[in-house]
Design brief:
alpha+beta, single chain, elongated, four-stranded antiparallel beta sheet
Length: 397
C-alpha cells in the first residue's frame, strides 16, 4: 500500500527548502537528486512545493481561505501543459531517458518560480509601490529566459549535446510561434494591464469620463428686455487651445458632467487601491468645481453690477433691447486640480510601461526568429500590415 508519509523526517523539509535556490544554480543535479528518490519521498516533495505554490495565490486574492489559493493555483498549472508538451516532445526526439527529467524540470521550475513572482506581486499590491512590480517583471523575464536557455543543460551532462537540445527546443518553439502568426488572421487584441491591477483599476475609473479636459473660462450674460440669462464658454486651457466662442454644446457638456460625477461616486465604492481612491476623490472635487461654475446664474441687476462684467454690445431689435456682457472666470483652482490629475495619469502610464518593459523585451528575444521570419514572409507575399485594435487610455493632453 502506498503511504506518502512513510519514513518522513523533518530534515526533508530543510532539504526541500534548500533546493529552491539549488535548482537555479544547478538544475540538472537537483532534478537527478529528486528523480533518484523513492515514490513516497518524491510525492512528499512535490506536495510541499505545490502547497507553497498554492499558498502564494492567497496573497493575490481578496479572500483568505485555502480554496482561494488552490483554485487559481490549479488553473495556473494548466498554462504549463503546452510548454511541457513541447519540451517533452523535443527531449523524446533525443531519447526516451530525457522525458522524465524534462517533465520534472518544467513542473519544478513552475512551482518554484511562480511563488516568488506571486510574493513580489502581493508586495506590490500591498505597498502600491511600482518598484516591486518592476522587480517582479525583471525576475519574470530572467526566469523565462533561464527556463528556455538552460533546458538542455538541465537534462544532459555533455555540453555539446545539451547546447544542441536547447537550440532545437528554441527553434521548435519559434516554428510554432511562426505557424500561429501565419494562421492568426484576426487582428483584434485587447490589451490588459497584466498583473498591474492598479493600472487596470485606474483605467476602469477614468475611461468612461467624457469632456473631462474642458473647463468654463468665460461667463456670458445676456439681458433681453430686462430678462437675464447666463451661459459660459468652454476651453481646454491645459493644452493651450482657444475658447470655442460658442455655447451650443453647453447642454451636452452639463449632461456629461452630471454623468461623470455620478459615475465617479459609484466607481469609488468599488476601488481597492488607496492611490486610486485618492485620485478618485480629486476627480470628484474637480468635477464638482466645474459644475459649480457651470451652474452659476446671475439673479438680478444688482448681482450683475457686483460681478463687474465687460459690456460687449447693446442693441435694439424691433423695439426689444439686448445687452451682452462677458466676464472671465477665475479658473485657476480648476486648472491646478487638472494639472494634478494629468500628472497622476501620466505617471501611472509611465510607471506601468516602464515596469512591463523587461517582460516585453524578454518575449521579443525569445520569439525573435519567429517574428522575423513572419515579417519576411509577409513582405515576400506583399501582405499589408493590419493595425491592431487596442483599448487605449484617453490622454488628458
Amino acid at each position: 500500500m502506498f503511504e506518502f508519509q512513510k519514513d518522513f523526517t523533518f530534515n526533508e523539509v530543510y532539504e526541500w527548502i534548500t533546493e529552491y535556490y539549488n535548482f537555479f544554480l544547478n538544475p540538472r543535479t537537483t532534478i537527478n537528486d529528486i528523480l533518484s528518490k523513492n515514490k513516497e519521498q518524491k510525492t512528499r516533495q512535490f506536495l510541499f512545493y505545490f502547497f507553497v505554490y498554492a499558498a502564494t495565490f492567497i496573497f493575490l486574492s481578496v479572500e483568505t481561505s485555502l480554496t482561494a489559493g488552490i483554485k487559481p493555483a490549479i488553473l495556473n498549472l494548466f498554462y504549463i501543459f503546452p510548454i511541457a508538451l513541447i519540451f517533452c516532445l523535443v527531449s523524446r526526439f533525443f531519447g526516451k531517458k530525457y522525458v522524465g527529467g524534462t517533465l520534472a524540470y518544467v513542473i519544478i521550475f513552475h512551482l518554484i518560480a511562480i511563488p516568488i513572482i506571486n510574493i513580489l506581486t502581493a508586495i506590490f499590491f500591498t505597498s502600491e509601490n511600482y518598484t516591486y512590480y518592476f522587480i517582479q517583471n525583471i525576475f519574470s523575464a530572467i526566469s523565462s529566459i533561464y527556463m528556455f536557455l538552460f533546458f538542455g543543460y538541465a537534462i544532459e551532462q555533455k555540453f555539446g549535446k545539451a547546447t544542441f537540445i536547447t537550440l532545437t527546443n528554441f527553434l521548435i518553439i519559434n516554428l510554432i510561434v511562426l505557424c500561429f502568426l501565419r494562421i492568426n488572421f484576426d487582428p483584434y487584441s485587447q490589451s490588459s494591464g497584466g498583473t498591474d491591477l492598479i493600472y487596470q483599476e485606474y483605467s476602469y475609473l477614468i475611461k468612461p469620463l467624457k469632456s473631462k479636459e474642458l473647463i468654463p473660462t468665460y461667463r456670458t450674460i445676456n439681458i433681453y428686455n430686462d430678462k437675464i440669462s447666463t451661459d459660459f464658454l468652454l476651453q481646454e486651457v491645459i493644452s493651450g487651445k482657444e475658447a470655442s466662442g460658442s455655447t451650443k454644446n453647453n447642454p451636452k457638456f452639463i449632461f456629461n458632467l452630471e454623468e461623470n460625477i455620478r459615475y465617479i461616486e459609484e466607481a469609488t465604492t468599488k476601488l481597492v487601491f488607496n492611490r486610486n481612491k485618492e485620485i478618485a476623490g480629486l476627480w470628484l472635487n474637480y468635477l464638482k468645481e466645474v459644475q459649480r461654475e457651470t451652474n452659476y446664474k446671475v439673479k438680478d441687476i444688482f448681482e450683475l453690477e457686483d460681478l463687474k462684467p465687460t459690456k460687449m454690445f447693446s442693441k435694439e431689435i424691433d423695439g426689444n433691447k439686448l445687452i451682452y456682457y462677458y466676464k472671465k472666470i477665475d479658473y485657476q483652482k480648476m486648472l491646478d486640480i487638472q494639472v494634478q490629475l494629468k500628472r497622476y495619469n501620466n505617471s501611472t502610464i509611465e510607471n506601468h510601461n516602464k515596469c512591463i518593459y523587461p517582460s516585453e523585451l524578454c518575449n521579443s528575444i525569445l520569439v525573435f526568429p519567429g517574428n522575423f521570419l513572419n515579417n519576411q514572409i509577409s513582405k515576400l507575399l506583399g501582405e499589408k500590415a493590419t493595425e491592431e485594435l487596442k483599448f487605449q487610455f484617453d490622454e488628458l493632453e
